Amino acid sequence: MRTKYIESAVSWVLLIMLVLWSMVPIYFVVSSAFKNPKEIFNYPPKLIFTPTLDNFATLYNDWPKFFYALQNSVIITFTSTAIIIAVSTLAAYAFSRFRFKVINFTAFVLIAVRMFPPIVITVPLYPIFSQLHLLDTHVTLILLYVSFYVSLSTWVMMSFIDEIPIDLEEAAMVDGATRLQAFIKVTLPLITPGMVSIAILATVFCWNEFTFAYIFSVTRAVTAPITLSEMLGGLYGAEWGSLFTASTIQLVPMLIFVWAVQKYLIKGLTMGAIKG
Questions:
Q1: Residue ranges of the domains in the chain?
Q2: pLDDT tens digit string along 118-155?
């Protein structure tokens, strides 16, 4: 019994240390957004200070481009995530329910392509998009994000669909439903946690992606991470107050989103675990 208590205490200590390790950088960024720029790097750091909104006003006046980039991030992330969910769900259903050599090989190629680093893909694609006059457009980034992430999303969704007994669909089809109706009315509601998991992973990826956005966007389709990098490398050095404020604004939507759907994420990851 004593050993059990010791193990439990050690587990809690390690868990608390892990949480603190994760929360301290976030706290530093958020708190710095409400500090006077001269106080941000004070040592020892002040945990209690008088908050100010001057950094938000400075960001709004000096970096209006950031809010335009944030709007682009919202549009590109929402559209890409919606397409990723739709394509990966349908593809995963086909890979799970129809077992043929060609389909199995296609599934293997799908995940093999995902192993290539993003920079390797951008080299041959850049002149192609340039010839098609698609550089610096929302469509280009959406296509790249969907193409790059749909493979992993498909494999994750396959693990969910594999756990749904095919007998349920067959019973529905015996009662007169088509395969499409059986999929929509029977299978789709059961794999909703998996779709939510994919939505979270895809949203975080698209929201924070840097490489594709840096290479294929210039002004019209520039995203928030690119603008943050520009703020970090300004002509007169980084404006730390504005930079931490912009980072906080960009961080808040993701924190709210993940917090709102965390229970679905936990349930989805549990249901999607590979069975032994």
A1: 52-271
A2: 777 788 888 888 888 888 899 999 999 998 888 888 88
Q: Which two tokens stand for residue 171?
A: 């019973």
Q: CATH code for 52-271?
A: 1.10.3720.10
Is pTM beyond 0.85? Reply is: no
Q: Quote the CA–CA distance of 94 and 246 in Å, as a whole number.
A: 42
Q: Are 213 and 223 in contact (CB under 8 A)?
A: yes
Cβ-contact 183, 247 below 8 angstroms: no
Phi-psi group of 176: left, alpha or beta (phi > 0 → left; psi -120 to 50 → alpha; rest → beta): left
CA triple 182-271-100, angle to 5 deg: 55
Q: How remote is the C-alpha of 13 from its chain's centroid?
A: 30
- Map tokens 């077992």 to a residue: 99
Q: How far apart are CA 256 and CA 130, in angstroms?
A: 37
Of 244, 253, 257, 259, nearest in space to 70 by CA: 253
Residue 33 per-residue DSSP state: T
pLDDT digits (tens, 9 = 90+) for 4-17: 777 788 888 888 88
Between CA 173 and CA 167 the distance in angstroms is: 10
Residues of the chain with pLDDT under 70: 1-2, 100-105, 107, 234-237, 264-276
Residue 133 three-state SS? coil
* pLDDT (0 to 100) of residue 275: 42
Cβ(222)–Cβ(161) under 8 Å?
no
